[in-house]
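We give the chain.
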Amino acid sequence: MRTRRTLTLAAAACAALLTTAALPSGASGATSPAPPSSPASVREGSVDAAALLAKVTSCSRVSDGTYRTDEETSATVPVCGKNGAVFWKADMDIDCDGQVTDRCNEGTDPWFQDDTAFHQSDGRPLRADTLPYVVVPSPSGIWDYADAGIEGGGVVAVIYGGKVEYAVVGDTGPDRIIGEASYATARALGIDPDPETGGAESGVTYILFKNSRVSPIESHSAAVSLADSLARRFLQNN
């Protein structure tokens, strides 16, 4: 999935460069689609991005190895430990799996799957286009999220471009690749949420709070409330 998405992005970039080169002097690519609008608020809750990022400038590695961000990249991303949390810094690929919606379906996402590892309180898969959630790597010899006190419904601070979005652990992915979040997470952070061509190539920080769980998992307001208190505790204890 990640390999194909990356190649699609590269092809799109190449096409854009060729189009720009062909324009006459003074012209611009005015027909290019506008980027998605950024959220009005730079953060959810009372803790800002800079305060959280200041606590994750160094890494005490808790994983036994490192992860790739895509199939064709080198394994360079460790899982790092802090008091009360683990974190990593990676890219963001878009997960549109779960409930079938107008934005997330087999037509919009070539790799669509109609299920998520963790389910809503009514037993249905999560809804990627409305619920901010993060994908964790499946357990492997590199790292096992459960051994680190991370579980489905655990809360996560996702930081990008000076913004903080709180999410839940909602799905699992390949066991050697890291850096993926739901359509709704990307959109809230001003990242293009298109599952085929969107995402961010780098600069995304994921802070997962240990031994936390939102109930019901589909309640974003509950996630924000819990994550805000844990983020403030994280700042105090690190």
